[in-house]
Amino acid sequence: MVGMPHPEPRHHAATTTVAAGRPTSVPDAPMNTPLVPASTFVAGGEREYGRYGNPTWAAFEEVVGELEGGSAVMFSSGIAAVAAALGTIAPGGRVVVAHQSYAGTHALLDDLAAHGALGVTRIDVTEADAFTRALDDEGDGTGGATTGEPGAVCLWLESPANPTMEVVDIQTITRAAHAAGARVVVDNTFATPLRQRPLDLGADLVVHSATKLLAGHSDALAGVAVARDEQLHQRVLSHRSTHGAVPGILEAYLATRGLRTLAVRLDRAESNARMLAERLSMHPAVDRVRYPGFGTLCSFEPSGGADAAHRVVMASALVRVSTSLGGVESSWERRRRWPAEPATVPEGLIRLSVGIEHVDDLWSDIERALGAA
């Protein structure tokens, strides 16, 4: 497939988050793209009908597309973007995915597999050569003995992984996947394009739950998929139009406004996360800390397993108990409270999403919660 021409970024990423997706600078033009509440448009243009596009979505897509180095398509949620990415796979194709991935992605893969839409091979990302072996071998759906299924057509990566925080070498694994004839999709929700650009590392498609760090204020559900190849971009765009997973204009407006501060939010929250990870690693009531060295997410396991973890999260006053992440406020939860969470996630693992509060206030609250447990 012929790739789309994407020039080198005009600005640093921190500037792009502020400058891209603005209306043309002419006298009396608004600084921000306004909400356009239109279900239909005057015929003769590119949009025509509200399901095919909206200027408010387009502003968000322009910012994310420039940040990731591709063409972006906005969706109503992160899982809608995941569904669109999986929707580009031909019926019966096999997907290789790590056990250490978002539970919602696993649930969607299981649903598609149960209906015969695709096959799934799960691997352990911590095993050397697991991805390459799964791509080369025919799978039984668990990474075990072969069953005569066709080779993989898609490799699904998360790095860092949700919620166990493993990091993989995207570039090396992508080369192996392409050599095996498989497309590579990377969920870049945790890292954001300010910390890694998977398309530059060879990936074919990037997805985000824009609900999280991109929008960043816990007030908008949104997702986005980004491709550099025009044919793949058009397939994702067609999926949105035909399946109707379109974002609301208010959500798109809020997500774009949230993007404007991504660089400063990420810097502050990441600095907090580094300090908290270091302090947690030295705390006597903590058995293990998982932090990849960047980003705003840190997972840890307190001594005493699931019961202790539950007591810790329920004892906090400042850190909120919540299943989402990436907001300006800090939140945490014991992930295995969800029945659908993969069994590879330890029972007592707490996923901590670090916000932009003062780090000493956060640590005081966390330390007190650990003591209470």
Automatic annotation (TrEMBL):
UniProt GO cellular component terms? cytoplasm
Which cofactors, by name? pyridoxal 5'-phosphate
Catalyzed reaction equations: L-methionine + H2O = methanethiol + 2-oxobutanoate + NH4(+); L-homocysteine + H2O = 2-oxobutanoate + hydrogen sulfide + NH4(+) + H(+)
Q: What class of enzyme is it?
A: lyase
Spell out the residue ranges making up region: Disordered: 1-32
Q: What is its EC number?
A: 4.4.1.2
In this UniProt entry, the residues modified to N6-(pyridoxal phosphate)lysine are K212
> Which GO molecular function entries does the Swiss-Prot or TrEMBL record give?
cystathionine gamma-lyase activity; homocysteine desulfhydrase activity; methionine gamma-lyase activity; pyridoxal phosphate binding
Q: Name one GO biological process term.
A: transsulfuration
Pfam families with a match to the protein in the record = Cys_Met_Meta_PP
Q: Which UniProt keywords apply?
A: Pyridoxal phosphate
* Database matches in PANTHER family: CYSTATHIONINE GAMMA-LYASE (PTHR11808:SF15), TRANS-SULFURATION ENZYME FAMILY MEMBER (PTHR11808)
The entry sums up its family as follows: Belongs to the trans-sulfuration enzymes family.
Protein name per the record:
homocysteine desulfhydrase
Source organism = Mumia flava
